[in-house]
Amino acid sequence: MHTGLVFLDAPSPNFDERALPVTMIVLHYTGMESAEAALERMRDPAAKVSAHYMVDEDGNITRLVPEDKRAWHAGRSHWRGITDVNSASVGIEIVNPGHEHGYRPFSAEQMGSVIPLVAEIKERYAITRGNVVGHSDVAPARKQDPGELFNWHALARLRLALPRPTRNLLDPGWPDAGFIMALERFGYDVSDETAAVTAFQRRFRPELVDGEIDMECRCLLLALLLPKPQGDD
Question: Where does the record place the N-acetylmuramoyl-L-alanine amidase domain (predicted)?
Answer without folding.
Answer: 10-147
